[in-house]
Amino acid sequence: MAWWSGLVPLLIFLAGSQLLVSCDDTDLSPDNVRWVRFIVTVNDTWDPDGCIATIATGKLVPNKKSNETKPITVGSCDHGPLVYTVTPGQAPDKMSVDLTFHSSSIEDAAPPTCQIPWNGTYVSPRARPDTDPRDDSPLPGCFTIDSREGHSTTFYWFYLLDWAGAGH
């Protein structure tokens, strides 16, 4: 699990660098999100050599079908189209990013899906007793697990890296 200790600082660095170049668009709504860039991490436990990789996607436009978007490649671990929609959220989140990764690793099951509750901003780290603050990511995200042929597991992490609304 040594890779995990490197993932959180990487996410914090990437979020910090994006805060310098991205606007914090508090007027974002599901209807005016123009694009989102994601950080995607895949851990393929079924690979005998092990495979863990993290990438930042290009700007992905919402509401596309899997055959309308260019596949992403997550190192040598996985590839496939990543599609998402932005819908109204439930309080306290004003939006939900509902994503599906059409993974090349998942052959006999539905593709991995995940829902990211989102306010249109980065996440403010919150102090919680008995937790390491480095475990809190400023990036809104979600995690899911899927299996290959019912016996080997693949783990997926998805984070919102940056985005633009209709006014930007």
From TrEMBL:
The keyword Signal applies. Residues 1-22 form the signal peptide. Keywords: Signal. Residues 127-137 have a biased composition (Basic and acidic residues). Residues 120-140 are annotated as: Disordered. This is Uncharacterized protein LOC109477235. The lineage of its organism: Eukaryota, Metazoa, Chordata, Cephalochordata, Leptocardii.
